[in-house]
């Protein structure tokens, strides 16, 4: 059932006088964690130690979101903004008044007619029908029901206005399920296909929660800032992108979003923090630096979101995330709300992740780790020596098909940084304007390359895995896996740079003898996404020696979880027997050994390999 915003407003007004009997009361305020991280010990106490932020949902939530009047605290909710400074938004020079938000939407469209909101037709070119029959599974206790429209969830006037400005008319499937779950205060592990709107799925509840929550006064007069929400990203460009998105969603709400990431001058980021921060978007390395310098404190974190969560807990990177989440003063599970999102979630990673969660809901939209049917996948047998000329043929054909002979945006993935440089130069020399992005480039060069690609100035971007995850570049029409990744999950993320938000896309992979270990998982994945699998690939895939065995996602075969997505490891006997079911951290102690032995290599950045990780 679709209802308009106007209906929702009317219903809300009618409801505001009464107390909803279904309202679940907010959990009792958590007791304060006694742990004080070393960098905060012996500090002069400028204000009271921060009272812990609210845990769980603010009063007044019911299963579909927020029930007006439940706690009698709605009076200021329709406001355009709340004043971060008065909430001790952090910083050692809290401004006296709220500064003007820079309009992230450009000059247009600021006078959105909210009465018309969500009642119109699709206006963003998003093909939502593509998602209509997508299988969704949820596991866990008391899962709040999904919604069909934004109007069914009261995210608040200011946020709704921004959703409108973004031209989002309907929630995508992952948003339909996750927003009510998050608004109900539940921890969440969500697996949904690339390009399906996961960023908004975790940003909306965070912003809405901050706006309506009873946020404890944050300390003043200290040079440390106390964000309320932390969003972690594995790469700098993704952090930048999440920051831009979150800024749009929180425009004129008074919620302040700041991003910190490595490779950029720290002083500039410190100045931004100084002006106050509610939502901090960060890459882990730079965040640890700021925590150790006591510029940021996690003591008041109420929401923690890990985007690309499986990458964040990837072998080699997990200790840093554990440090941030478990050893730097952040409130423990139950006293904060934790949301983990990715398109892929290997079982082993789920086990690690469960340490961060309490009584969580496991959600899958589509199958765990599957790719979307919107991407046409092709795989060609191409010998190493022939790859360049093959690529050239593809690019020529594409150009001929393109509008006015223009080269459509093409993203070419290679294995090494050197390989990226070399291919970029070769393409440029041969009349194809190309640029490259990889970990050896300066941050300035990386950002310039991305901008140049997005704008179409250099319509070919040669990239390592640093660009594989999360980047939302409109109109990438072709992803070429010039070098096939060693891990099928990386393949899923790479091809997911096209075919986003309901649009179709094309992905071509160059396969040869060097990629045999991926034959089975690639053939299975393509079959599952209803793609044409070449006979030669099926043949290789059927050979026991090429049968994967390394397919870490499903313990040696893609058998886990049935046809549709949901495989929640809490169902595994292994998990239950190992005492890992209680989210109690009991798994943590011997994680490393078990984890490593399960992997048998081939996972994570090996010697000489590129890392998609940033600091
Ligand atoms: N409800 C919506 N209506 C229309 N467009 C939407 C909606 N939600 C998100 N989008 C758009 O869909 C695109 C993909 O969203 P997003 O980048 O969040 O995907 P994702 O699931 O995080 O992908 P990935 O797995 O690659 O990180 C973005 O351009 C975003 O603006």
UniProtKB/TrEMBL annotation:
Residue ranges of region Disordered?
1-106, 548-615
Is-annotated flag, keyword Ligase? Answer: no
SMART domains for this protein = DEXDc, HELICc
Residues in Helicase C-terminal domain copies: 390-541
User: Under the GO molecular function aspect, what terms does this record hold?
Assistant: ATP binding; hydrolase activity; RNA binding; RNA helicase activity
Bias (Polar residues) occurs at 15-34
Quote the InterPro entries the UniProt record gives: DEAD/DEAH_box_helicase_dom (IPR011545), Ded1/Dbp1_DEADc (IPR044763), Helicase_ATP-bd (IPR014001), Helicase_C-like (IPR001650), P-loop_NTPase (IPR027417), RNA_helicase_DEAD_Q_motif (IPR014014)
- Pfam families attached to this UniProt entry: DEAD, Helicase_C
EC number of this enzyme: 3.6.4.13
**Which transformation does this protein catalyse, written as a reaction?**
ATP + H2O = ADP + phosphate + H(+)
Q: Where is the composition biased (Low complexity)?
A: 46-60
Q: Where is the composition biased (Gly residues)?
A: 578-592
Say which enzyme class the record assigns: hydrolase
Q: What residue stretches are annotated with the DEAD-box RNA helicase Q domain? A: 148-176
Q: Which residues form the Helicase ATP-binding domain?
A: 179-363
Q: Which domain of life is it from?
A: Eukaryota
Spell out where the chain crosses the membrane.
Answer: none
* Motif Q motif location, chain numbering: 148-176
What keywords are annotated for this sequence in UniProt?
ATP-binding, Helicase, Hydrolase, Nucleotide-binding, RNA-binding
Which family does the record claim for this protein?
Answer: Belongs to the DEAD box helicase family. DDX3/DED1 subfamily.
Q: What is this protein called?
A: RNA helicase
Q: Which organism is it from?
A: Daucus carota subsp. sativus
Lineage of producing organism: Eukaryota, Viridiplantae, Streptophyta, Embryophyta, Tracheophyta
